[in-house]
């Protein structure tokens, strides 16, 4: 059995970007990371629910992963001085489009 890391076991202060964060797997990942003290940029095409936005360290970020302009804006932000605090140790790409069969 793999031991679950304790809330302060190397997670506190890290930064994560989670897409598809409004519900389902992305919302669960957001809750788990926030409970471990990670700063979470919770990105989704739909609004991030109030119960998630109320969690310490969770920041809602409107983002459509299929929109090149949204991706470009996110990349420009991450390259800017405004994002110099972002160290991005975690990236969860969850929400999006499934193409083909
Ligand atoms: N739940 C499962 O058991 C399971 C199993 C295998 C694969 N998956 C895949 O994992 C992904 C997530 O599953 P889920 O059950 O959490 O789905 P879900 O539908 O509950 O949640 C998906 C989230 O992604 C967001 N989203 C959709 N399009 C987006 C876009 N263009 N940009 C940003 N966000 C977008 C939605 O708003 C939603 O909040 C899906 O692609 C699903 O096919 C899920």
UniProtKB/TrEMBL annotation:
Native organism taxonomy: Bacteria, Thermotogati, Deinococcota, Deinococci, Deinococcales
Organism of provenance: Deinococcus caeni
Protein's name according to its UniProt entry: SDR family oxidoreductase
PANTHER family xref list: 3-OXOACYL-(ACYL-CARRIER-PROTEIN) REDUCTASE (AFU_ORTHOLOGUE AFUA_6G11210), SHORT-CHAIN DEHYDROGENASE_REDUCTASE FAMILY PROTEIN
A Pfam family recorded for this sequence: adh_short
Keyword NADP listed: no
Keywords: Oxidoreductase
Protein family: Belongs to the short-chain dehydrogenases/reductases (SDR) family.
Oxidoreductase among keywords: yes
Matching InterPro entries: NAD(P)-bd_dom_sf, SDR_fam
């Amino acid at each position: 059995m793999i031991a679950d890391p304790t809330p302060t076991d190397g997670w506190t202060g890290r930064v994560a970007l989670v897409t598809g964060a409004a519900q389902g797997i992305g919302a669960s990942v957001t809750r788990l990371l926030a409970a471990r003290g990670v700063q979470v940029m919770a990105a989704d095409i739909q609004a991030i629910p109030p119960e998630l936005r109320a969690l310490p360290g969770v920041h809602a970020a409107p983002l459509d992963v299929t929109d090149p302009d949204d991706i470009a804006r996110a990349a420009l932000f991450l390259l800017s001085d405004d994002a110099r605090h972002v160290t991005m140790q975690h990236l969860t790409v969850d929400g999006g489009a499934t193409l083909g069969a």
